[in-house]
Amino acid sequence: MTKAGGARKRAPERTSAAILEAAVQEFSQRGYDGARVDAIAKRAKINKRMLYHYFGGKDGLYLAVLEGR
Fold it and tell me: Which DSSP string corresponds to the chain?
């Protein structure tokens, strides 16, 4: 969806879900130690800062994945 001027609307739920989905894939394939925040952000097609905004970092994201949020 776009606003006037082509700017995208914010969709926190969609962004959070995309990050979690990408994280599940990354952690499943590479484990906690091998997973990289940069790779998760790239898979989710988001800016890495958004990952830190929503989950605080790799530890918080891993916990969210384990809890099935």
Answer: -B-GGGPBPP-HHHHHHHHHHHHHHHHHHHHHHH--HHHHHHHHTS-HHHHHHHHSSHHHHHHHHHHT-
Cβ neighbour number for residue 61 with a 10 Å cutoff: 25
What is the reported pTM?
A: 0.82
Check if the beta carbon of residue 58 is closer than 8 Å to that of residue 66: no
pLDDT in tens, 15-56: 999 999 999 999 999 999 999 999 999 999 999 999 999 999
